[in-house]
Amino acid sequence: MSHYLEIAKIESQVEYTVDEQTKSETKKTRDLLFLSVPDSTNSGQFIKLGKGTYIIPIKAYSDNLSKEIEFYIEIFWNANELKSKSTSNFYVKQIKKVELPKEIIKEI
Is residue 21 part of a domain? Predict the structure, then answer.
């Protein structure tokens, strides 16, 4: 039986700004990346990820496995608008423990 896990999601957010001189309103849409984990400091919200590279550890358990499976997901985010998706503004990939930066290995 397969199960899917949502790790992160991209949501569009609309912002309105008002020019003080002309009093005209401008609508701007930007894309935000959220980790699919509730934000403990902001009830009802998810953790918003800023621009950068994130490494997320995943531990999977199952009754039919002899031990847990541990793997890592790397997410790179450098976008405000994802009309043109490319690895220069967004990517997700699985990495192995041996590929982790030395600074992270020291912490785990």
Answer: yes
pLDDT per residue as tens digits for the range 32-68? 899 988 888 887 788 888 899 999 988 888 888 888 8
75 contacts: CB under 8 Å, gap ≥ 6: 7, 8, 33, 49, 53, 54, 56, 91, 92
Q: Is residue 2 part of a domain?
A: no
Domain for residue 1, yes or no? no
Give the pTM: 0.72
Beta strands in the chain (DSSP E): 8-18, 25-38, 46-49, 52-60, 69-77, 90-95
Q: Which residue segment(s) compose the domain that 60 sits in?
A: 8-107
Q: Are 30 and 7 in contact (CB under 8 A)?
A: no
Does 88 reside within a domain? yes
Half-sphere exposure of residue 60: CA atoms within 13 angstroms, side-chain side: 12
